[in-house]
Write a structure and sequence with these properties.
This is Crp/Fnr family transcriptional regulator. 65% of the residues lie in helices and 0% in strands. The chain is built from five helices and no strands.
């Protein structure tokens, strides 16, 4: 880049986002698009405020599933939950499986419960804020 020339804002980020998108499976791509649409409409002052909290997607649990694939499925099922909120609990459950030998199906059961609890907490928080606005 030459001095004094304006930088193209976001071009490197856009390239990175496109690269990441291409590397995802179709299920994760769909979740990313839904989340991007959510962000695009929620941050705009001209957009109507959300009056209903989004429902989780329905990605059924396969009979044979690894813990990693379950986490990916649950992230796609609950795109409205920030990953940072789940990092500690998810890491602890993964450690219980990998290091301590806890059965995958038991860990996945706990992961599903954890994601569901976080979803309901976020939904309750949203509904509480909505009632104070209205």
């Amino acid at each position: 880049m030459l001095p004094g020339m304006p930088q193209q804002s976001g071009s490197a980020e856009e390239k990175r986002l496109r690269k990441l998108y291409r590397e995802m499976n179709p299920q994760d791509q769909a979740a990313l698009v839904r989340f991007a649409e959510f962000l695009a409409t929620s941050g705009s002052p001209a957009a109507e405020p959300m009056t209903e909290f989004p429902e989780p997607e329905n990605f059924p649990r396969p009979e044979q599933e690894s813990v990693v694939k379950a986490i990916k499925r649950l992230v796609a099922t609950y795109p409205m939950i920030e990953r940072d909120r789940l990092l500690n609990e998810t890491s602890n459950l993964m450690t219980a499986h990998v290091i301590h030998g806890k059965l995958a199906r038991d860990v996945i059961d706990e992961l599903e419960a954890t994601f569901e609890q976080h979803y309901h907490a976020l939904k309750a928080e949203f509904e509480q804020k909505l009632t104070t606005i209205l």
